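To close the chapter, one final illustration. This time we ask the reader to focus less on the individual chains and more on the assembly as a whole: which components sit near each other, and how the overall shape emerges from the parts.
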Amino acid sequence: MTDHNFEPTIIGFTCNWCSYRASDLAGTARMKYAPNVRLIRLMCSGRLDPTFVLRALSEGADGVMITGCHPGECHYIEQNYKALRRFLLLRRVLTGLGIEPERVKLVWASAAEGARFASETTAFVEEIRKLGPLNWGKDEGERRKDEEGNKNSSFIIQPSSFEKEVPA
Amino acid sequence: MKKYLLYPGCSMESSGRAYRDSINAIVEPLDLHFEEIDDWNCCGATEYLGINLIPAYSLIARNLALAAKQTHPVNGTEGTRTVVAPCSACYLNLAKADYYMQERPSLGVKVNEALAAGDLQYTAGTLDVRHLIDILVYDVGLEKIRSAVVRPLHGLKVAPYMGCMLPRPDYQHRWSDHEHPTELDDLLRALGADVIDYPLTTSCCGGHMTQIGPETAFELIRRLVADADERDAQLMATVCPMCQMNVDAYQNEMNRFFGTDYHMPILFFTQLMGLAFGREPKELGIGVELVNSRNALAHIGVEVPVTQEPTAPRKKVEGLPMPRRWTKHEGRKEAVK
Amino acid sequence: MTEKVGVYVCHCGSNIAGTVDVEDVAHWAAEKLGHQGVIIAREYKFMCSSLGQELIEKDIKELGLTRVVVAACSPHLHEKTFRIAAKNAGLNPYLVELASIREQVSWVHSDKVVATAKAKAVVSGAVSRAIQNAPLEELKVPINSNTLVVGGGIAGIQSALEIANAGFHVYLVEREPSIGGHMAQFDKTFPTLDCSACILTPRMVEAGTHPNITLLTWSEVTNVAGYVGNFHVTIKKKARFINEELCTGCGICQEKCPKKVIDDVYEAGLGYRKAVYTPFAQAVPNFPVMDKDNCTYFEKGTCKACEKFCPTGAIDFNQQDELLHIDVGNIVLATGYDLFDARRVSNYGYGRLPNVFTSLEFERLSNAAGPTNGNIVLRDGKTAPKSVGIIHCVGSRDRNFNNYCSVICCMQGLKFAHLVHERTGATVYNFYIDMRTAYKAYDEFYQRVLEEGTLFVRGKVAEVTDAARYSNEKGKLIIQTEDTLAGKQRRIPVDMVILSSGLQPRHDAKEVGKLFGISCSMDGWFTEKHPKLDPVATMTEGIYIVGCAQGPKDIPSSVAQGAAASARVLDKILQKEVALEPIKATVNKEMCSGCRICNGLCPFNAIGFLADDNVSEINPALCQGCGTCVAACPAGAISGTGFSNEQIIAQIDGLLMRNLEPA
Amino acid sequence: MPQMTDERVRAGLTHEEDLSLLHEVSMKTAGVSRLEMCIQCGTCGGSCPAAQDMDHTPRMLFAMLRAGMREEVLRSNTQWICVSCYHCVVRCPQEVHIADVMYALKGMSIRAKLYADSTAPDFSQTFIDMVESYGRSFEMGLASRHYLKHFPLRLPGMMPMGLGMIFKGRMALVPKKIEQMDQLKKILDRAKQLEMIS
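The assembled structure is written out below.
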């Protein structure tokens, strides 16, 4: 069952040339999307070291979104295919670690696809919300501490204030 | 021996009986094993879809669900996931249900909910829905067909009539072309027939309009028959019982309507295959057509030693060269320099 | 050493401040990130204004900041601004980090609490990352003043001439035996109806005789190495079997050659040439080439008619392909387009119905130098058509084929209508979806064609057939369409159909793109650096794209782009050296195990292997900084400046708020 | 929905603009209709083998759909003349699922009782009745019931053909029934319920 009170934290890796620009475009066009994703800019999705994903998941992220140029459109010719391969491998590793592989998602978005970036982001947040919190790499005490901390900080996002609408 | 699941369709039991007889006559020489889907029901033709969406697709999907239970191997055959439909309308309905249940998952969910009321279930994409001629040309192969020919149809001028619902909309990209597919031409040529260039090969026969708007249908039938006649065809070959029914059974009424006197017999391609394989007309249901094919078949009845096929006249020197013919199978990379 | 970090939060008027509580963010950063080294956090109305910049410069100087984090708009907008400000204040520009809280926060979220929370996370990530930033220096490399232009169509010719006239050397490489491209095949050019050859030939001759241009026809680029300013290019000069020193271009060999071949290229398949040939009379250079695949001597070992009759002994059957190596500083790609293969639209009958012609075929048909001497006739070679249908948008604006508008087809269709009307007096129909006659004097041409009495039918043609339905259709081609303005289906019998086919990327555009290290769009056209503000440059420094290689366009636009690219090249040449972004990968030789996994990963061939030391090495000038090798190195021996593991991991932790002041 | 006020009628407006129509048709179409992508090029109207008998070409019907002319659209004979030959579908440059839209319009037209001629809906209904009672189509029953009602005058002319079909064994006089008729009935009943909900 989906816990609607659960607000996932997601780390998104973007490519400097396409998906980061797509997020810029989504901004310029004022497209609203779920606020749960925090982006990191890489020069290319090929730069994505799988350990970054593991690091993010172990440090408190509930999901990781990897974005890059569409196949065949890589600024560096074909490095996004390497990202794709690593992504597939990574999902297997996660399965082996007992983590739902769906927590990592690969999205292709060109610099012109702001709308796609926005809708994919919102969709992914919902997918992660269904999966629930990950709480990997934290012991019980730490988790409780987190929860306590969240209660006091303005960082917790109230469900009522969460925007769901995304323009088609 | 390769097994296929057969969905015969309602016409095969009545108006298209000759189709069934002739299919039975060719499976053995081609080493095919057709296993009928148990207790299949009508696909709804083009009627149900216009009334109710979900019942229409549930009606079709029941057949797919039943077929999916019969995919296992039986004595001496491999298992299969291929459903063969010899009727173009049935083929399209089955293929369409399978495709749309995937394209629009909510439809798939609802259809399965309905199927569940009969303890059935179907996962879209489980089966491959294919038409009989697709199996014959691409699985059996023209080479094998050619080698089974004992009475080549040399001298028989045939208009290859594919009809509309077979090559279109072609969800799975099975055909060489949507407008001028070559599968039937190639197959008839393998039988030795003299295949004419028939531009209306995928035009519509009128479908159910013979029942609800006869004037519309008669015009469509007239176009088909008139063009075949204009091009000196002796008979038409079809792959669909509805096309056969419309062009055959309504031809005289059409003639009356327009004051014409066309006599254009139309046979199932499998009947011509049977003839070429040396079967007797009677086993193949030849003679039950209303526009009889006696005169047309007389051209091959006599066993005249075959002379060389007439070659096309040489193009005059001042003529300009034609571009090469295009088929999809040439590959996508082809480009004009 | 503890860094001294300054955090600057921009209001951007109300763009950011309207949704993010900027004061709270700044206050929070100073408080919660103080232990990380944040010694000052300010907010200001417009950080990018000169006052905002001065604020940062002042802090750097007075507080001795070693890192600067600006929470404002996207780094693609103002990263450079703040880097320059830092540099002015004596701080290495790469120690500045931007946190995008406008495009990624204030503009895409509407709840102030949520947006402020996310802005804090983004700032926290940027601070952590900035601490790990290292000072970097731009790499300067000299520029070779030679230029390579690939493709000798009008765009390439224009580009080559502009650079050559400025006094710099150009290598102009063309795959076909002559330069001229598609324009050389045309009869007239819209909208002015100048004779194509009349305006093109002088340019071709100028390019062929220019002292600064080395013309390499019947040649192809086979390898490109190096980087902006220092490309090393290998060119295959295919054997012509003609000694160019001796050949006078007299043409006797062509006359005597007994082998006739359909000319698929220049005559668009509508005419013949010999096995030894110059494609057309005004070809530049005027030396013939021998088509080895069709030559009787190469096929059967006898003939040599050309050799017997050549007055200067220029035929050389032993000639071999040659490989040339040249060094250039910049490359202009003007590789053009392929015509859409109209056989794919089987309902239009091209290839099946003899009197259906493509646009290029019609160009040859109406060209006085073409196979019919400019007589517009049916495929029987003699009958003039009494009625002609011209179909627009063939293969364009159609998801079954090419989804884009090919730009030129409307005007081309109008031009054909005019020519048919003028030369044959036939009734002409134009079938169009939308009439697109933008640009100077184009719509006036449309008006002129309307005035001439061409009949226009708004409707995408459904089919062209020879299946007559009524007696008036016998022996004709019937164009069936909906006249969408009349709301009725029409069947129009005509003698000739001309398909205004669209343009599509060269069939080998992908491979060519790979060769030069540039990418193609979804449709297959080369991708420009910026669709509006940088239309001739590419993401690869020093490589420019002009003409139809970049997308469908007409002759004026191709010429303009050719010239524009030249201006960019001259700009580079005159700068004499170029600065390269210092985002590079380097191999730590101590850690490298010599496994060579990285060697094959680099698309720019920047990674070499030092066999003696058994380690890999990266050429910093070739490295484009994608970082794939960094991520792939199993020994962790490769590090990438600007995007190091430390920087990214710090940013992850920061974004996840793992770096806050312990409570 | 704007009302047909006197003012509007006086101004010569003949229909109410119902902008929800396009969406409704799309929802009722099997697969994804892509109707909103139509560029009004006329490929469908040009391709249609039966366009001469239609009140409106398919293209025009789609324009009317967009304009929200609900009644005119559902009253049109276009969807009933469609022979499902799919020529327009494969040629459409925007990949609109035209044939399936026609099926959706038939259903809507029946429900709104706006069809001008009952021949086609009756034929469909008769056909379905046969299928729902036997699980198979029954040409003899179908033809006799349908012709008696709609084309009694055509019957004498049809006699030779009908007799020929029977004589040549191409038309069965008794219907064939599937074995698990009750299973099919359950499925269809459930499907009809689901149809009502959606």
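The CA atoms of residues 208 and 300 of chain B lie 34 Å apart. Residues 302-316, 331-337 of chain B have pLDDT under 50 and may be disordered. With these observations in hand, you are ready for the problems at the end of the chapter.
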